[in-house]
Amino acid sequence: MKTILKNATLLPEYGYGSAPVSVMIEDRKIVEIAEKTTLSSDAEIIDCHGNLLIPAFYNAHCHAAMTLFRGYGEDLPLQRWLDEKILPAEEKLTYHSVRVATELAIAEMLRNGVASFSDMYMFEDAVADAVLATGIKANLSRSFVSFDPEADIRKDFRFAEFRSLAENYHNADGGRIVVDLSLHAEYTNTPYACKTVGEYALANGYGIQIHLSETEKEHNDCIRRHGKTPTAFFRELGVLEVPVTAAHCVWVTDEDIATLAEKKVSVAHNPVSNLKLGSGVMPLRKMLDAGVNVALGTDGVASNNRLDVLREMQTAAILHKGVTRDPAVTIAAQMLPLATCNGAVAQGRTDCGRVEVGYRADLVLMDRHSIHNMPSYDDYAMLSYSADRSDVLMTMVDGRILYRNGEYTSIDEERLRCEAQEVFAHYFD
């Protein structure tokens, strides 16, 4: 089945100016872009009415099932938030609660134009099942922690869960699901565990997701423990020898940034979560100038409280101007890649993140005619400064429309609301 999106406006970088185009999609990919496309009798034709067709957003770091904890444990610094609220609550998680909470997160992300997310959590088989059922994409990782310096991690239940996840879901449905390894952080793992995970990832072709220098305390405690920064710690143990997505990177040195660039580590910038937890502000301009691939993440909604990559992009677009007192430190036209193609790169999805022939059809249609977007002299500025998640008219993943004009095609919203309310009602009994 073909789909033709006619009368769509593309961003200037694609070379069509302001002229409306038609985009033909077949077998998950964009197969033609032209000012005039031959209409096909076997195609679904959708009139975009001049609205803006952009790559879908990629959420490079989140904990999807933490929708269960939205609004729980508010206004605390990270360590107290974790120790007093989140970690005790996570002890009560089940496959069912994670499955329902993840599906709720996916519904929110699709509504907000997100085509793919990188998840680091537990009960990842439940997350995988929710991903397969709803049509979204995801890079899934079972977060690993280890405090015993002599433990064989390959006998740990978390490693067994990773192996099961990889065997059952890695590259499922044409690569919609990718399974990564995960080290929660330096402060929750021994050097031996980190070295073993790094070696296993390198030998078996897996990427790794980590938290890195999220807080000043984490960063300085690592230096006191090991005589080096978390970035240097992971580098020395071989963790950075494979594709790594490092979340946060707020407290990094110039030498750390050079290492991240050299090792081609993708950094997931989580500005809203970092601000809300009082963790600080990542040095975005330094990262970009050094050639680091910077993507955007929401983190979990317990520390955000939304799964809205557009808001992350807009926060980043203005936050760094204020911190540096330089209005040109971020440029509107340079912000969208952080939310789109850079996230695809972080996930190893090299044929995603662009509106070009041959790329996967992960697309979002944005309303250019909203009152708050008029007039749109510059669509990049519209996206970076005025657009809202309510402007998402359609979200397409791998050529399949999953959300359009307020309705889901793969999610029974009413059923999901009822199941979620039931989980919420009993969770903290």
Describe the fold and architecture:
38% of the residues lie in helices and 21% in strands. With 429 residues, the protein is of the alpha/beta class. The protein folds into two domains: 2-55 and 353-408, Urease, subunit C, domain 1; 57-346, Metal-dependent hydrolases (TIM Barrel), CATH 3.20.20. It has an eight-stranded parallel beta sheet. A five-stranded antiparallel beta sheet has the order 5-14-15-16-17, covered by helices on one side. Helix 2 (95-111) crosses helix 16 (413-427) and helix 13 (332-339) packs across helix 15 (379-386). The longest helix has 17 residues, at 95-111. 52% of the residues are buried. The model has no long low-confidence stretch (mean pLDDT 95).
Spell out the key features of this protein.
single chain, 429 residues, alpha/beta, Urease, subunit C, domain 1, TIM Barrel, 2 domains, 5-stranded antiparallel β-sheet, 16 helices
CATH class category name of the largest domain: Alpha Beta
Predict the CATH topology of the largest domain: TIM Barrel
Beta-strand content bin:
15-25%
- First and last CA, distance: 48 Å
Shape: globular
Secondary structure: helix percent: 25-40%
Biggest β-sheet description: 8 strands, parallel
The fourth-level CATH homologous superfamily of the largest domain is Metal-dependent hydrolases
Please tally the β strands and state the result. Answer: 17
CA-based gyration radius: 21 Å
SS field, number of helical segments: 16
Specify the CATH architecture of the largest domain.
Alpha-Beta Barrel
Uncertain runs with pLDDT below 50, 5 residues or more? none
Class per helix and strand makeup: alpha/beta
| Average pLDDT rating | 95
Across the major sheet, the strand order is 6-7-8-9-10-11-12-13
Number of domains: 2
